[in-house]
Request: fold
Amino acid sequence: MPKDSTLPAGSAPPRGAPRSRLRGLAQNALLALLSTAVCLLLVEGAARVARHFQRGGKEQRTRVLYTEYDPLLGWKKTPGARARYERREFQTDVVINSLGLRDRERTLLPAPGTFRMLALGDSFVEAFQVAEDEMVTQRLERSLSGRDCALEVINGGSTGYSTDQELLFYREEGRRFEPRVVLLFFYYNDVLYNGAARNIQLPKPLLSFRGGTPVVANYPVPRRPPVPPDASPAGDVLFAGYSVALDWVGERLENADPAAYNRLARFGLWAPTSKQALAPEFRVYMKKPPADVRLGWTMTGRILGALAQEVWKRDARLLIVYIPGRGEVKDEYWDLARRRHGITDAEWDPDTVVQRLSAIAVAERIPLLDLTPALRRATRWHSWPYFDFDGHWNALGHRVAAAEVARALKGQGWLPPCASRAVPD
Reply:
């Protein structure tokens, strides 16, 4: 008769049972390690491929594909041209219409009964970082126009322009669109370049106010130098000798949470935040700015006053729209600037630019809309209105800006009744 295989209560298990369990645990642990390793390899491979195809050309290298030399403005967009930006955070197509604008096709003169506005500005307004229908001008137009409300918002923005070029563009081209309202979008780097004959490496007009009327002192503006080719090898990211995925995580963490980034740097995951050279235009945030920045502010006041006169003599209205830098909207970015550039609160102030600009606006009797509060309200832990690396508005930023401009125009009483009804109180 065979033995009963069932152990009586309280009996010890066979001697081989613990080894069997240990072997099972070891097999599960090995399987988990292998699965983790495979996942990490897949993530690393995906990161390398994504970074390889999103490297693209630098801004200047792409910009030359759809711009041309202009003796007055330095450069302008080429009618009918197109280009594609390939960046780590966006991939967009830029199409220039027959009037030389990044905009849908327009007629030079507005149709009868159409209320028209013109937006002036730099790359925030040209908005090459987002699709055309996401631009602040298109969003503003859609929010205000309707079946019984003919309203257009012309996009007169050009990447790299400062306020002096925007004044010249309005005087030579923009006024011909017959806008009833002109929106001048102002960014902090306008200040320095308003008093300079170059925007970094690009020759630009330098205005002279002798005799009261602004004229281009360096006309014709010198041609820009040839753009050097991209010297980095095409396959350097695919076969990099470091973890591209870890590098990607570190880059984003450094921008999102510098303190956490530096805490993890102690474990050797990446190098701690180091001091970097300060971009010249950033000195506009100094409480006691150097001479070239003071000149820039003086020129900014004269240029804005001249633009206001040009707009008013055509029985139109001018609104300055202030675009804050990322450090003015998100405190972590100002903290990152402290670490990278060694700036101190005793000498630097993130609010100094909008304060100086507000003083000019009051002196010149020009209304000013500061977008800082609205962009701060739109900032969440998981999303915010700017790209982390590029530094311009993403689609959320353009949406917030369009809504705030609409409310400001309604508050000024500058909108036709049909459009004013479309703006929430």
